Amino acid sequence: MSDLPPMTSVKRWLVTTNHKDVGILYITTALFFLLLGGAMALLFRVQLWEPGGLGILEPVQFNQAVSTHGLLMVFWFLSPIASGFANYLVPLQIGAKDLAFPRLNALSYWFYLFSGILFVLSFFQGQTYAGGWTLYAPLNVPMYTPAMDATAGNNAAILALTLFVMSITIGSVNFLTTIHRSRAEGLGLWNMPMFTWSWLLTAWMMLFAFAALLAALLLLSIDRLFLTEYFMTDQGSSLLWAHLFWFFGHPEVYIVFFPALGIMFETFQTFTGRRLVGRKWVIIAMVLVAVQSFLVWMHHMFLTTINLEIKTLYMATTIGISLPFDLMVFSLIYTMVKGRVRFTTPFLFSLGALVLFILGGITGVFLGAVVLDYEFRGTYWVVAHFHYVMVSGVTALVAGLYYWWPKITGKMYSEALGKLNFAVYFIGFNMLYFPMFLAWETPRRVFHYGESAQIYHQIATVGAFVLGLSFLIMFFTFAKSWISGPKAPDNPWEYSRTAEWAIPSPPPLENWDGRPSYASGRLEFVDDSPAATDGGVAHGQGNTAEASVEHEAEHADHASIWPFGIGVGTFVFFLGLSGLTPFVANFAEGTAEPPEGLVGFETQPDIMYPVLIALGMAIMGITLFQFGREKFDAPVMNIAERWPFGGIGNTKFGIWVFLASDVIVFGAAIGAYIFMRLHMGWMDWEFDPITMAGLVNTYILLTSSFTVIIALVMAERKNKSGLLGAMSATVLLALAFMGVKAFEYTQKMGDGHYWWYSIEYSIYYVTTGLHALHVILGVLVALFMIYRIISIDAYLEDHRPVEFFGLYWHFVDIVWVLLFPLFYLM
Amino acid sequence: MANLRTYTLIYILLVALATGKFVFFEFNFAYATAIGGTIVLAVTKILLIAGYYQHLIEEPRAISYMMATAVFMVFLLVIAAGYSIQ
User: Does A641 touch chain B (CB under 8 A)?
Assistant: First the structure.
């Protein structure tokens, strides 16, 4: 499907894969979740009007409002709205026609939207999640908190977050491939616009950090759905969760803030009319922060039982990460000093963000000191600090909305209304969050507090409504502009220099008439048509055939319904999973070794959920199959800057990036095993493996790796029957592997060793099961490829898909290389 | 791309290395020795598979650095978390 309906058609928004459309979808959806998260905040701020609560919320409802506010704002608003900007602007800023994988980009969005819908539905399935946005163990499982009953709603919230993380992972792979491989000729990394720089580093952080969260959420979901014990043991579970969560959680702060920082850099440059002071050093500082962000996570765990040496080390790394930020702040201030400031609405919001971020940063340094953290942890000091940081990010994101609104819509907005918006926003923000510093002794997530703090809480509550009002003004300003605003020129800002301002507002579907190039040192549009090149040779680092760019533009596709279909199927499947627990609990109770002391699993089975699981799988099967069959030509850049990833195709690079993420997912799961075993005492681990089964499966999987590599050789030789035979052998070996696994599991269960039997068995079943799931997914792909070989003689002319499949399959083999000794020998 | 002969030799080597891990634990080696030996064999196997079956040695070095970064992240998480409870 390549025809893209007009923007006024609903169908357009269901089928589009164009990066600008997807960007608009992201931004509007994120703003909806901002309103929802904001409504939650207003609810509990009203409850906090007086000590002990005003009574508008029951205690568990208060917990739900607080938890869902945090989850919605951090996950469904902050990251996605930045993703919306990135979708719209990064390809424009780097001179690309679209993202590297447009259909995957659409799939990212649909996973995001449906994860949000699943989260909203969780309110209506018993109750939604109420254990705080950090999902600390053991609050995240029902064992010690019966109020956290494993209702479908509680499960759905966790599963929604899992689906959201899947969306982020796909998006990260796409952006990393795009930015590293689709930059216009002459656009080296140093010269990339600052917003794109901030997003590149964000994508790298997301790739690694969200993978750890994905692993944690998978383990948590399995605990809740299948009664395993990762987060239910009385020893080690809470530390395990904290390590996994904060390994993600601290980089997440910068994942959320970096795009905002990028917007600040862009707007400061534009509205001071000056290049960012110390630009190169600012980029180095951002890279340093991105690296350091993975070295500070244990400062969130100073009140746990981790040892003092590691606390001291992490105190030092935490103080260290503030230094690059100092450089960035001084750069922004000095850029203002050196330039001529024009106080437009986007600049005011950016300047406000800088002021608020400085306050948030300084108050955060207190929390990096172990001794002070002992006092401040779990109080409103933390709440105030991180809102000053995170919502200063929101402030810059609002600046971005105003800055790029004329480009996206082609309409100008009212500066007077915009400035009014800023004034109300800034007053509301500080009325809301500053009193929290003064009321710092108030415990978090509790509506009981000392009477002396009441005045501060009341000011904060009034501030919350003022801040809410500012967003209504913002929506009114944009609506008025949309309906009756004057037409925006290509570049309404005098000193903006990035490429998006060099084309019409809004930009055309294909972005550029010619090929953008910076080869001469400034942006030019090159006509690559044969008549225009006069027989000359185009220069660049392209490594594929020198096809005509115009030829590609004519055939580039922008529409596919299948990403939407896959999103629907996955949503239905996850919704079905949310109600699986009662069935598993009933099964467990009926076995010879039922779980002991099972608490919080009293929800009654509902047949609707298994039906939804089956339906979801069916929809996924059909849509994935059609997705695989569909002929879709993404825009390709034959001439592009690709350092340091030249000499490798887009798809192969994308697969490697995905595998890097999967290394973290498996690494975290295997790490959970090592951590729990260390915590228990390495030699006290009571698990009785069937070693021969592990050894046989090792031989089987190694042999399957060999058959996959033979398949590649056969494809290269254009030997159809050889290719077919090798792929079929791979599938048969995989089935043999699964057969041995089934035998092994049956033996274990025959001995009464189910996955709920002990933490040892939970980890054994889940880790090897996660690997088996990868094998099954590989088998499905292999079967599809066999179908394609038989039906259309696929891969004989272009053998690369066989190589891509091999990359995945060998990775699965590598994981088993580690699992075999860990679970069968040691 | 390597040829079929190289792939076959590597396969034989991989099977031998897998058997080696089993031998370490089935015969009377000290537990620490068995673990150490197994780690060496496992790392060798992983490098062989990644290097020759996934053709990492033929790809741009940056791909290897990226994968090494991912592995480093795992080591960082596991070692730091493990040390934190000692």
Answer: no
